[in-house]
Amino acid sequence: xxxxxxAFKSREDHRKQIELEEARKAGLAPAEVDEDxxxxxxxxPQYMSSAPWYLNAERPSLKHQRKWKSDPNYTKxxxxxxxxxxxxxxxxxxxxxxxxxxxHDSKGCMERPCKIGAKWTNKNIAPDExxxxxxxxxxxxxxxxxxxxxxxxAQVIQRYEARDEARRKYLKEQQLKQLETKNNNQNQxxxxxxxxxxxxxxxxxxxxxxxxxxxxxxxxEKRVRTTAGGSTGTVxxxxxxxxxxxYLLNLDVNSAYYDPKTRSMREDPLPDMDPNEKFxxxxxxxxxxxxxxxxxxxxxxxxxxxxxxxxxxMQAAPSQAELLHKYYKINKEKLKGQTKESMMERYGNxxxxxxxxxxxxxxxxxxxxxxxxxx
Length: 375
Description:
Helices cover 37% and strands 2% of the residues. α5 (153-182) packs across α6 (188-207). The protein has helices at 11-26, 46-49, 118-121, 138-141, 153-182, 188-207, 211-215, 283-287, 291-307, 318-347, 358-362, and strands at residues 219-221, 234-236. A two-stranded antiparallel ribbon has the order 1-2. It is mostly helical.
């Protein structure tokens, strides 16, 4: 028995139960209410709303689907880093022989190793650390920011502000040196105007962007399958953004079909247009020209060779398949040449420059030939 709420029902009661469930799904009857007074969605399956038998549930509910078992010992707090508890004046028995703290031994001591430890000198006794133990829940164990103090980020901001201030001060000193060399005889008012000019020049210098970065606006960083999961380089866009997309070349409903999943348009969207004026002829034009046709022939050769018993596989050993295809073409040309030569030796070459014999042209000659009885 799966649940305690499932009991024996007659055929009539079962039919009424089904009718009631259908009415609840259609919204004609009010939804069923659980033990806590909450409505149960009638579209929820019975195996979800029926509680297991060991919970001794008298009626369907969703209480067992919720987080009903919570441990009060779980906490989201974190270790108090760097906290000290008690600072002793004398060395205590069982303490660390190096620093004198009771919370660890000499093997796990993080203080500077002393030539003569605190056990023998009885000086520079380190305070005891604050030892804490927590019972973290599933989320608490995996929280990467647990125990992070946001106030520590102010130190990072101060470091960057100090760097910017030092850079600004250095640039101002360099600019003032240049102005002093150019204008040695200027008065104080002229110096004030120079400071204003310097501030404007400094703003321009800070707003300047590297030209090499501006020229690389068409590059897109692409993460590929590498061992470390990093990027192996940049991949340029396949289409310049100023060009019209191929699915916008012809907005007619009956024009070439565009597949949005593969972004392919096999047919020519503008077949009646002058070929010299259009830049896109359809994906079939690329599939039947250039190295795509050679790759197709290479695949066909690998398939036919495999069917004839050769151990060739295009995906498993592409270099081997390409080399075998190369040798196949060379041998095929040799066989063609040998066949041609044998045919010419047997039947002659009608396209040669040698004049044909008269008897072949006229079909008769004046030469007399005698045959014996055997022919």
